[in-house]
From TrEMBL:
PROSITE patterns: MFS. Gene3D superfamilies: MFS general substrate transporter like domains (1.20.1250.20). This is MFS transporter. The chain crosses the membrane at residues 20-39, 51-70, 90-111, 150-169, 175-196, 230-250, 270-291, 303-321, 327-348, 360-381, 401-421. Pfam families: MFS_1. It is a multi-pass membrane protein. It comes from Sphingomonas colocasiae. Signal peptide: none annotated. InterPro entries: MFS, MFS_dom, MFS_spinster-like, MFS_trans_sf. Keywords: Membrane, Transmembrane, Transmembrane helix, Transport. Residues 22-424 form the Major facilitator superfamily (MFS) profile domain.
Length: 434
């Protein structure tokens, strides 16, 4: 079944009515991807208590275990997304990661939970590249900033679900029920996926060649390396993921240790910041992108660079103040905005890449960003916290200092977005999106 009809004003016959439905469905898939990932970070403290884990072990469980297999499977699955029916691939990926999320809730010990977490990573690796590639074929280059900003609202929806829902379910029914409930939430979205039509690759690119030969793995990688602005956008998005999303993995635990909040209270606050605050920030970003869509592409980079730079200030300060109310206020100036850069960054990446290699290029971003977000951030912050604990007067405060230092990497991310501007026009032309 396909929703909508073909409109002759749409690029290359893409059904204009249906593309917004497709955007909605892909956003819901992305929300579940984030929710199933985020809920475990909300449940860190009860899981740590039940299995008697250190912060380093928690960092490995919540980040490294997911990232190692997410990133290992991501590149070949990204290349696969450029060759197979993308809608079907997304459906299989959603079913697999949801099943393993349920297995996480059934784990009887650390090692069972670790294996199930690995399964979640493999499943999630197969969902995002084909989703981005489909959306790029439903929207023109000038429209992708808006479309990807709407798609990125899935982060706020998923984070709110994982934070608020996971925290409340854990307080009333235990952490296991929370994980199983989130796994079951995928069933309605799986049904919706079958209403999505697989578009022709390059359908919304004015100069795309339907007969263009499928590039090899090596050719795709060589093209990415040759696009200097693309390399800078990939680097900026990767580091921004570390300095923003990487810190939020530990925020519920930070609020509990440094400010005496319960799992439910911390989950609710962070969930509201991600869900309500992040949702509002994402909607505002859509309006900004509507304005920027009529301007030169360099303004996309300028917008993301300034945003990344400015939110780093409250991001660092929130972990240094001792007053709970002030810390919460500063987190409200930080967390809701950390994902705003996703939409403009994804649009730039799609526009700087040729149609036949978009799935692979997204997989490259997922590889680097998830190493930063899921492996390096949880693990390095956990190590830093454990290292500081015996060396300070109040060991419970070690996490706050580790988080404050990690937040400074936002300055580095901003530099790369500015650096991308230098070669942006010629690189867009080479990709066919000028």
């Amino acid at each position: 079944m396909t929703i909508g009809t073909t409109d002759q004003t749409a690029p290359h016959g893409v059904a204009r009515n249906s593309r917004y439905w497709v955007l909605f469905v892909m956003t819901m898939v992305y929300a579940l991807n984030i929710a199933d990932r985020f809920v475990l970070s909300t449940l860190i403290e009860p899981i740590k208590a039940e299995f008697a884990l250190s912060d380093s072990a928690v960092g490995f469980l919540t980040g490294v275990a997911l990232a190692l297999f997410y990133t290992t499977a991501g590149l070949p699955l990204g290349a696969l997304a450029d060759r197979v029916n993308r809608r079907n691939m997304i459906a299989w990926a959603l079913a697999i990661w949801s099943m393993f999320t349920a297995f996480c809730g059934m784990a009887g010990n650390f090692w069972q939970l670790l294996l199930a977490r690995i399964g979640v990573g493999v499943g999630e690796a197969g969902g995002t590249p084909p989703s981005h590639s489909i959306l790029a074929d439903y929207f023109r280059p000038s429209e992708r900033g808006v479309a990807m900003s709407i798609y990125a609202i899935g982060v706020s929806i998923g984070s709110a679900m994982g934070g608020i829902g996971g925290g409340l379910l854990a307080e009333h029914y235990g952490w296991r029920v929370g994980l199983i409930a989130f796994a079951a939430a995928s069933l309605p979205v799986l049904i919706l996926l079958w209403t999505v039509r697989e578009p022709r690759r390059g359908a919304s690119d004015a100069h795309a060649d339907a007969q263009e030969a499928q590039p090899s793995f090596r050719e795709s990688l060589a093209f990415i390396r040759s696009q200097k602005s693309l390399v800078h956008v990939l680097a900026g998005a990767t580091i921004a993921t570390f300095s923003g999303g990487g810190l939020v993995w530990w925020t519920p635990a930070f609020l509990g240790r440094s400010h005496g909040m319960s799992v439910g209270e911390a989950g609710l606050d962070v969930g509201l910041m991600n869900g309500v605050g992040g949702g509002i920030a994402m909607v505002l970003a859509v309006f900004v992108m509507l304005r920027l869509a009529r301007m030169e592409a360099k303004w996309h980079c300028q917008f993301v660079a300034w945003l990344t730079l400015l939110i780093s200030i409250p991001g660092v300060a929130a972990h240094m103040v001792s007053d709970r109310a002030t810390a919460i206020l500063l987190l409200w100036l930080f967390i809701p905005f950390i994902n705003v850069m996703i939409g403009p960054s994804l649009a730039l990446i799609q526009n700087l890449t040729r149609p036949g290699m978009r799935g692979f290029t997204v997989a490259v971003l997922l590889f680097t960003a998830n190493i930063a977000n899921l492996a390096l951030a949880p693990q390095l912050i956990g190590f830093a916290s454990d290292l500081l604990a015996p060396r300070i007067e109040d060991p419970a405060q070690s996490l706050r200092y580790a988080l404050a230092f990690a937040g400074l990497t936002g300055l580095w991310a901003a530099y790369h977005f500015w650096a991308a501007i230098r070669t942006l026009p010629q690189d867009l032309a080479r990709a066919g999106s000028a």
